[in-house]
Amino acid sequence: MRRLTAVVAGRCPRCLDGRIWRGLFSMNEVCPVCGLRFEREPGYWTGAMVASYALGVPILVVLIFLVWLVTRWDVTFVLAVADGLFILVAPLVWRYSRIVWLHLDWLVDPVRG
What we know:
Layout: H1 2-9, H2 46-71, H3 75-108
Helix pairs in contact: 2-3
């Protein structure tokens, strides 16, 4: 349960306390509490693209369904409106894809010390 709270709050996967993000679009290079380096190697965030897809597709499907349910428009208009709404939440998907990737990577291959 503490890990899930840390993911939602954007906290470090090792200590579960330090902030991953220092601003809206800027990350800390290391955890301010335990010193964990977030980007292990060049290309590290490539794995976050998979997490982004896993987070983004269900959100887009829900948006499409909700727009259609409320408006009953033609599918072309529904897709266009849902895509526009998704663009508004895309920065959150991007942020959380990195958080989820960090935590998944930590669970599979924890860095000690």
